[in-house]
Write a structure and sequence with these properties.
alpha+beta
Length: about 425
Amino acid sequence: MSKAAIADANDFAATATKSDVEEIQAAARVRAYSMPLEDIDVSDQTLFLNNTIWPYFERLRKEDPVHFNAESDYGPYWSITKYKDIMAVDTNHAVFSSESGLGGITIRDPMDDFRLPMFIAMDQPKHDAQRKVVSPIVAPNNLDKLESVIRERACTILDDLPIGEEFDWVDRVSIELTTQMLATLFDFPWEDRRKLTRWSDVATADLDSGIIDSMEQRREELRECGEYFMRLWNERVNAREPGGDLISMLAHGESTRNMPFEEFLGNLILLIVGGNDTTRNSITGGVYEMDRNPGEFEKLKANPELIPNMVSEIIRWQTPLAHMRRTALEDTELGGKKIKKGDKVVMWYVSGNRDDEVIPDADEFIIDRPRARNHLSFGFGIHRCVGNRLAEMQLRIIWEEILKRFPTIKVIGEPKRIYSNFVKGYESMTVIIPEKY
């Protein structure tokens, strides 16, 4: 897809009415159910950009939940689209590998000359050894300390928003809150904190996204990221007393202090993307869905105790990372299909979270849904998101503070979505807050 076509899609989003969106969704459903089953390719990033992916996943769940695509921009791959099948792959680490040397965790294979090892793309025992180094940052006692910091910053950000004027919620709120949190976790220079957002976007961007112009640009910007953090590493590793930030933990951790540069950079990218995308896009997605479902917003205002449950529903609904990839270590069988050793296996969390065999009324956004935490967005098994409780806490706090201030937040047009089949998120979203309490 050309950059011009992406620009056209974004221009449509800015002016789209509800009927425009319904028309596009209806046309997508016709296409999804009329094309030959073997031609369905849910890795098509255009479907995510236009938010028309849903009928394709729906058809695969019904007719071919373990689906082989022989030809795609990423080579042949298996799509796993139902909740229980995804769980089976996600928790069977002996058969399905995350190793970066075998292909890593995304449908897009890493560049041969720029493979970045990271603990999410490692198998045992190295995975657990490195994960344990950074886990204390999200331990309950540290989360308790962070709560007041997050609340103070959320209040400042919300209090600075204009009333009665249009503005970009993504930039003013979602990015700013998550970037401030990342800067705290890394003890990163405050004035440079937006570099973290840029590096996160570059690390996950497709060449056609408009974020980068070439793969060489990606390499150069990520090398800049590594060099910046290496300066911080050298400061922390020589400190008399190890700090409680992520860089200090990596610099002094027994299994990470002697990492090669590429592995250090890989783990940095993992922590930056993980700390940025889940919270940033779920904050935006929650505001978007509350505007589309005013009855749910009224339900929340009448009963603010629903906020923790609503947070889980937002994370399910948004599914900030649409997929994770594994590589088969041996011949195996799943859903009656024979998967061969070396095959690329893609778990579409975004589809499993809409599987109504496990989640009743899965296509409905319901903030008081029973068992709302029963979603796939954080993954399962040894690779379950290490920062899931921090993400939930940030979302809980921002919504507690929103309810204290604003009777409503109106979304103007449609948000501009990210051109990606991995990060399911938003480039921008214009809103207006008519009044404040």
